Amino acid sequence: MLLAQESATPPGGLAEASVPPPPRLSVPYTRFVLPNGLNVILHEDHSTPMVSVNVWYNVGSGREKPGRTGFAHLFEHIMFEGSGHVPEGKFDEWLEAAGGNNNGSTDGDRTNYWENIPANALDLALFLESDRMGYLVQAMSPEKVDGQRDVVKNERRQSFENRPYGMAWLTLPEHLYPAEHPYHWSTIGSMEDLSAASYEDVLEFFKRFYGPNNATLAIAGDIDPRRTRALVEKWFSDVKPGPAVAPFSAPPAVLNEERRVVLEDRVQLPRLYMAWHSPALLTPGDAELDVLANVLAGGKNSRLYKRLVYDMQIAQDVSAFQSSAALGSNFIIIATARSGHTLSELESVIQEEIERLKREPPSAREVRRAVNQFEAGFLDRLERIGGFGGKADQLNSYYLRTGNPDFFNEDLSRYHAIDPADVQAVAQSCLDEGRVLLSIVPEGKTELQAQPKRRAES
Amino acid sequence: VITSPRVLLRSAVLGAGCSLCLVETALAQAPDRSKPPELGPPPALTLPPIARHTLSNGVTVLLLEKHQVPVVQVNLVARAGSAMDPDGKIGLASMTAAMLDEGAGRRDALAVADAVDYLGAQLGVTAEQHATTLSMHTPVSRLDSALAVFADVALRPAFSPEELERQRRQRLTALAQQHDEPRIVASVLFARVLYGENHPYGRRAGGVERSVRSFTVQDLQDFHQTWFRPDNAALIVVGDVRAEMILPRLETIFGGAQWGVAGGGGGGGGGRETPDPRWPEVSQVSRRRLYLVDIPGAAQTEVVVGRIGVSRSTPDYYSLVVMNTVLGGSFTSRLNQNLREDKGYSYGASSGFGFDRLAGPFSARSSVHTDVTDKALAEVMRELRRIRERVPGEELERAKNYVALRFPERFESVASIARQLGELYVYDLPLDYYNQYTRRILSVTARDVQRAAQQYLDPERSAIVLVGDRAKIEPGVKALKLGPVETMTVEEVLGPVPVMASIR
After folding, report:
1. Alpha-helical regions (H) of B406-445
2. What does the DSSP 8-state code read for residue B498?
3. How far apart, in whole angstroms, are the C-alpha atoms of residue A314 and residue B102?
4. Residues 6+ apart with CB under 8 A from B264
5. Which residue of B has its CA nearest to A153?
């Protein structure tokens, strides 16, 4: 259960009144490791009679070999197509018949899977997860690969090609990272590489990365830990370990110069993307950049929203975020120009505000306002046991990234430790000239792009 | 909000309190994998009681205590939505909603946002056809301060002329951006084809250029005073609060105040009664017709097939929910299995009823690869015919369980619970409604499902909207001989792109 130590609310407090001290977060768990190397985390929460089973494999699209971009994600799809003792189609049918829901996701670093089920169906979910962890290839066929290949190609069309500005997310990484860096290619991959993916690739990838020793299983919800542990041992003990997996690594990516890129798209308004390299997930500077993003573009009083959208009214929207990842992150600012305005106009205002934050730190209130929002977000993430971002998912995420599943309070403490000078410091160290400026403009209107200009005299 | 799609889903050192122990070499026998494990009976969901109160001025309060996490959700639900947009003022409900937090009480727009953000609260407002929901999510430690801002926004919006101009430019630009979105083009056209432009369900809830340009501060005040009234609104409170603590506060803040006194305007909570709105009759789709909107070069075609459905109050509600789950309401549903898993035409296909106070639309939808548009459409039509036959027992049981046994998930987060309670108010459902839900779903029979499908689905009398690359898809679609094909441009659907030069 959550332990929240709250002070009494100040009587009749107004919005301007002092805010109470932060809650102390804790998600108690038990953890054990099976002889085959599978890490297991259990967390009880009896709020509803539901359980979530969540598995993270420590492999993402960053591990793909040349000519096979998109493969880790295609493989994730294939994981739902049946395994040694689960005929094709039954994974979903059996879960739905038990009142369960499921999904999976892939990014550059990792792949995760979950089933949300009524408490009585835990046995079924563990059977299904263990069967595909242990016996996927027994049921694999070239036809299954072909089927999901078509689905994933349609996902690419739907989420990127046929979506306004969708090509931005395929373009930015190519310019941010050198060709050999694991983040150079997008997780969805290229159509050519998806076409090339083979049945043999599936066997090889499974053997190399999908062993229990490269996975972590979290079970949260309406469980009895002793009985659950016995069920985990029953279903997962016969899964054979895989080879040891080398740590995921790459030399740090550096951009020493500005790169300007222009794309034309079927859109009404031009949109500017500014992207920098930034510190990796959970490393020093990562939380500071979350706060910087909020100071720049979180809410109406943020610097860029207030100037571009509220006062000048030359932009329709602006956003900024730290997109955190294991080998290194990206700090990204996005703004869409109103009709009659160019991306160069937006760029110069954004640059002014960046320079201002490098010159002088944000106010204490701006930083506190941001930290208060992050703090509230931590509470919200304790409400659900399952699905993406539920407690089971977070326990696995923290375990994989820090070795401590209950890293909630340590994570929140990063934000509480930030003062305005820290935010200024990351603006100075991160938002430099080594960056990608991507202009997406309406077809035939390249004059709206963010134009390179002569360097300032200084 | 734009975020990075770094994560693609499928359809998209030890801490304190931890015990690490390695399992002794397994005595465990190899498990029996020859068949899926037998499951015991599903657990019952016992919902905490929903308490209903009435403030002294008539405001309904629905309260559910939930103490697991120190957060609270407060929603104000008014029975006011785009179905109440006056003639010529399409989008007024939506604009009124958007303007609520653009200055309220003694705070201007920036001060409202600063107060909410500083508290770590989230304030949102959505206008639907028959309801406007102002929602606030906050750590319970900040509830007092957050409630004060919330009450100002709900009851004392400023509706300042300057902020209206800002919102007008924002909205006109958003209307222009709709031209970029094939999915929106398809939805707008589908609604219009079914209901016509004289019915609120056939119009664009966000407004059109002409109406958005026409809104005045007086329009907003009139709409707010007409509909945001104690006898036409409910407060929904869910979370880590105690009834005896929160109810007196709600009485003080919402129970005595005159409602509808906005921006120095007159009117008020007394006097006139809330109007009883009337809507024109609509006629069902009488013959099959296709509408093809051209987007040259589109990688996919948006496919929408459907007709007018039925209202939320229908006694067939549960039969229809189960029927739709079989057809297109889950991953293993027929539409998704056929178009995605079997044929690989799409990333997904689904169907649904827009149950509302009036009969909302039924639609089956998918985004399909341009090259297989005709084949995909033929499969959608095939599934719409096939669902009218008796559904096999195993498939029916699966659909019923999927809906009924997954139901507790809706009662996990305070925001989700508050949405459920809001539905009770908007659709006049009894307080024990959710306690009956699982049983009612599980009692639906194959005969019920077949009758519902035959009564409400009719592939011969449906509208078909396709938005995609006409040159590539028209020949194949015409060869299906499904009916007359009317071709259109995006501008013929949405109107010309609003001319921004005159905005600023």
Report:
1. 414-426, 433-442
2. P
3. 19
4. none
5. B347
| Per-residue pLDDT, B273 | 79
Predicted TM-score of the model (pTM): 0.94
Residue A4 CA from chain centroid, whole number = 27
Q: Are A15 and B148 in contact (CB under 8 A)?
A: yes
Residue A1 pLDDT greater than 60, yes or no: no
* Residue A18 pLDDT: 54
Contact A107 B7 (CB under 8 A): yes
B18 CB neighbour count, 10 Å cutoff: 16
Count H helices, E strands: chain B?
A: 17, 14
Rounded to whole angstroms, how far apart are CA atoms A293 and A153? 33
CB contact under 8 A, A120 and B42: yes
Give the nearest chain B residue to A406 (CA atoms): B15
Spatial distance between the Cα atoms of B148 and B125, rounded to a whole number of angstroms: 16
pLDDT digits (tens, 9 = 90+) for A74-122: 999 999 999 999 999 999 999 999 999 999 999 999 999 999 999 999 9
pLDDT of B438-451, one tens digit each?
999 999 999 999 99
pLDDT band at A367 (very low <50, low <70, confident <90, very high): very high
- Cα within 13 Å of Cα(A407), Cβ side: 19
pLDDT in tens, A47-87: 999 999 999 999 999 999 999 999 999 999 999 999 999 99
Tell me how far apart the alpha carbons of residues A119 and A219 are, in angstroms, rounded to a whole number.
Answer: 11
What gap in Å lies between CA A217 and CA A393, rounded to an integer?
9
> 């707008």: which residue's tokens?
B188
Q: What is the spatial distance between Cα B232 and Cα A134, in angstroms, rounded to a whole number? A: 58
Cβ atoms of B348 and B11 within 8 Å: the answer is yes
The C-alpha atoms of residue A278 and residue A283 are separated, in whole angstroms, by: 10
Is 0.90 exceeded by the ipTM?
yes
Interchain pair A49, B45: CB under 8 A:
yes
**What contacts A305, CB < 8 A, 6 or more positions away?**
A297, A298, A299, A318
Q: What would the two tokens of residue A316 be?
A: 């329709």
Q: Is A318 part of the contact surface with chain B (CB cutoff 8 Å)?
A: no
Contacting B residues, span 15-54, partner chain A, CB-CB under 8 Å: 15-23, 25-26, 28, 30-31, 33-34, 36-37, 39-45
Could you tell me which residues come within 8 angstroms of residue A11 by beta carbon, excluding any fewer than 6 positions away?
A: none
> Across the beta sheet with B485-489, what order do the strands follow?
B346-353, B361-369, B300-308, B463-468, B289-294, B485-489
Least trusted range by pLDDT, from A22-31, A56-65, A181-190, B333-342: A22-31
- Closest residue, chain B, to A84 (C-alpha): B33
Q: Which residues are registered as beta bridge partners of A113?
A: A55, A104
Contact B6 A31 (CB under 8 A): no
B7 and chain A in contact, CB less than 8 A: yes
Tokens of A62: 């960053």
Residue A290 φ/ψ, nearest 5 degrees: -60, -45
B143-164: average pLDDT:
97
DSSP string computed for B71-91: EEEEEEEES--GGGPPTT-TT
**pLDDT at residue A73 in the model:** 97
Record: contact B10-A158, CB cut-off 8 A? no
Sheet with B122-127: strands ordered across: B51-54, B60-65, B233-239, B71-78, B132-139, B122-127
CB A280 within 8 A of CB A327: yes
**CB contact at 8 A, B350 and B333:** yes
User: Token pair for residue A381?
Assistant: 């993430």
CA angle A175, A177, A178 (to 5 degrees): 100
Instruction: Yes or no: say if A262 and A437 are a contact pair by the CB < 8 Å rule.
Output: no
What are the C-alpha distances in Å from A35 to residues A178, A212, A214, B33? 40, 10, 13, 20
Q: pLDDT category, A129, cuts 50, 70, 90?
A: very high
